[in-house]
Write a structure and sequence with these properties.
430 residues, mainly beta, Ubiquitin-like (UB roll), Porin, 2 domains, three-stranded mixed beta sheet, 4 helices, POTRA domain-containing protein, BamA/TamA_POTRA
Length: 430
């Protein structure tokens, strides 16, 4: 077995992904499919622009060649971002141009050629953030056991302290920081292949809010302006999609368990269970179908305001971007029908000699979708209408899958409340 093109990536990293090695017997009837499955595993390491496989059989001996084109692994990226949940929320603010962040985000992927990752953030402006994280997916010959660690410090001139009419109420302090958070995390990783990863993390958090926050919401933290807690989380992920960036076939499943234990302020401990499953099906020709579901249950005697979030943050019923929905338990179902509009192949950029940058893939997809969601909240303020109510939306979108796994989405969505609008996103929706 031979590998060509891995100038930075070490060979043991590649061999650990394959389900065969020298000396194994491969049957002719399954050879092509098996080689393709392993090629996809290497490609989904997301370390290469492309991975090709060739096989030659002579006198009963099979020679397999995997050739790859490596990416560029160090990215110093300037930070200029909006200090709100999404573009619509930022646009609704009268002081929107003061609510921006700037700085530098540095990522070193494939550190030491071992698929390790270093990440650092230096962010100034409206939200201050200083972060450093290290992630090693696996050590040893089979790269089964890995490690993760990180530290984050954050403070901001503004804080959303309550939800009224299903929208956030914001406190801004020009000369002070109403919120300060820091946490440190350590974790272990158990990794069979790039498709199956289980992570166990322990994180210590320390958070503080100003007295002004408690004036507007005395129960923001339930007990005083500070709190300390430890999160213990176990997350298992099975990712069998054809590509991780813009999947068209395969399946994805993830289960997470999180136990939060408070240390000092007498807040009740909590337990959260969340599951996600998605399926991607080729319908024939340029048509593809995707369906995804997310469910969550959170158990606690009582929850502080920032712990009682459901839709509007990392989960969203599309078309409800202007709203946040509080609640302990939730369900979300998303469906999409995708048509490959056109594939421009790889556009060559003249004047650039580096193969890591001079070829840009451009694939456009037309997508129609339907989302349905529900949030269960035992006690709801009368001014909030969306908890304990079925949410639904439909729309049409244009997706662009391109350079370095970037996906750009422009969509029009209309929700059950007869509200519609255009939205821009930078991730695959399901």
């Amino acid at each position: 077995m031979l590998f060509v093109g891995n100038k930075v990536t070490r060979e043991p990293v590649l061999r650990a992904e394959l389900d065969f090695q020298e000396g194994d017997t491969l049957t002719a009837s399954t050879l092509i499919r098996r080689l393709e499955v392993n090629r996809r595993r290497l490609f989904n390491l997301q370390l290469f622009h492309q991975v090709l496989v060739q096989a030659v059989c002579r006198d009963g001996e099979l020679t397999i060649l995997y050739s790859m084109q490596e990416r560029w692994y160090t990215f110093p990226i300037p930070i200029f971002s909006l200090a709100d949940r999404n573009f619509r929320s930022w646009l609704d603010r009268s002081d929107r141009w003061k609510r921006v962040d700037y700085g530098i985000h540095v990522v070193r992927r494939n550190f030491r050629g071992r698929n390790e990752q270093l990440l650092g953030n230096l962010q100034l402006g409206f939200n201050r953030k200083y972060e450093l994280f290290y992630e090693a997916p696996g050590y040893g010959r089979r790269r089964r056991i890995g490690f993760g660690a990180g530290y984050s410090y954050y403070r901001s001139h503004a804080l959303d302290y309550a939800t009224v009419s299903d929208k956030l109420r914001n406190l801004r302090q020009e000369d002070a920081f109403p919120i300060e958070r820091q946490y440190a995390t350590l974790g272990l990783r158990w990794r069979r292949t790039v498709q199956h990863l289980t992570a166990l993390d322990v994180a210590y958090h320390h958070e503080r809010v100003s007295d002004s926050v408690l004036y507007y919401n005395p129960d923001y933290f339930l007990n005083g302006p500070r709190r300390e807690y430890v999160d213990i989380s176990l997350i298992s992920t099975l990712n069998q999609r054809n590509t991780f960036a813009y999947p068209l076939t395969g399946q994805y499943a993830q289960v997470s368990l999180t136990y939060r234990a408070f240390l000092a302020n007498r807040s009740p401990n909590s337990f959260t269970l969340r599951g996600r499953y998605a399926r991607y099906v080729a319908l024939g020709g340029p048509f593809y179908y995707s369906i995804g579901a997310v469910g969550q249950m959170r158990f606690a005697e009582k929850l502080a305001y920032p712990d009682n979030r459901a839709f509007g943050y990392d989960l969203l019923v599309r078309g409800y971007d202007a709203y946040v929905i509080e609640g302990r338990h939730l369900g979300l179902l998303q469906q999409g029908l995708t048509y490959r509009l056109f594939d421009l192949g790889k556009m060559q950029i003249s004047g650039l000699q580096s193969t890591r940058f001079n070829s840009i893939p451009l694939v456009f997809y037309l997508n129609t979708f339907v989302d349905v969601g529900y949030v269960r909240q035992p006690t709801v303020l009368p001014v909030n209408r969306l908890p304990n109510r079925f949410l639904a939306s439909t729309g049409v979108a244009l997706h662009l899958a391109t350079y370095y796994d970037w996906v750009f989405t422009l969509e029009y969505a209309r929700n059950r409340e007869q509200q519609g609008g255009f939205f821009f996103r930078t991730q695959f929706p399901i």
